[in-house]
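User: Second chain of the day. Same drill as before.
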Amino acid sequence: EFCLGLAQALQGAEGVWALAADTDGIDGVEDNAGALVAPDTLARAAALQLRLGDHLDRHDAYGFFSALDDLVVTGPTHTNVNDFRVLLVL
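Assistant: Same format as last time:
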């Protein structure tokens, strides 16, 4: 959900990418560790008729980023050093 909020806040800002993931390899009950945000995230979502606000309201980051093929899936890592966030600004 962090990535959904970030994508909304960035509004496709050029030169900004983000990754948010859980180091244990799963996010709650889902099979993904996290998701990626890119400058074209909102444009690709619009092309698929995905409405970011609707996904935020439903707390459905998985559905949003799965449709974009932007989930980070590592499988269980058997370690947990907490959540990982990184921003790349070029």
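The chain has one domain: 2-89.

User: Great, on to the next one.
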